[in-house]
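STRUCTURE:
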């Protein structure tokens, strides 16, 4: 996969699973763990979730009052298409390298969106 450039629109964490996440100004990614202080972090394959702001904007355009963190994503991206990412691909986010561990897209009556999960990886 070639190089793609986008930006981080928001970083979000929550202390409990199943809750919308709150936006934070910075976060610490821990290798093989996830975002420090987030309920989904830990020694499993889905440590960090990503969602494109463009997907959120599609839902907002239909009248929903949602924003970054509403879908329990940790990193809201902007300007990068997450849909082509596949398991094993790597994505650099700031100074961190994330390895894609799951990618899923779904449709509902109101939207189509994709979420991608990753694990912090070594720079190798």
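SEQUENCE:
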């Amino acid at each position: 996969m070639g190089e793609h450039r986008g930006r981080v629109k928001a970083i979000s964490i929550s202390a409990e699973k199943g809750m919308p996440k709150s936006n934070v100004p910075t976060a610490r990614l821990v290798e093989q763990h996830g975002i420090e202080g987030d309920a989904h972090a830990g020694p499993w394959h889905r440590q960090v979730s990503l969602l494109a702001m463009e997907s959120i904007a599609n839902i907002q355009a239909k009248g929903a009052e949602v924003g970054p963190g509403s879908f329990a994503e940790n990193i809201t991206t902007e300007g990068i298409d997450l849909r082509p990412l596949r398991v094993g691909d790597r994505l650099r986010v700031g100074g961190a390298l994330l390895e894609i561990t799951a990618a899923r897209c779904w449709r509902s009556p109101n939207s189509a969106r994709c979420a991608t999960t990753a694990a912090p990886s070594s720079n190798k």
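REMARK: The helical segments are 53-60.
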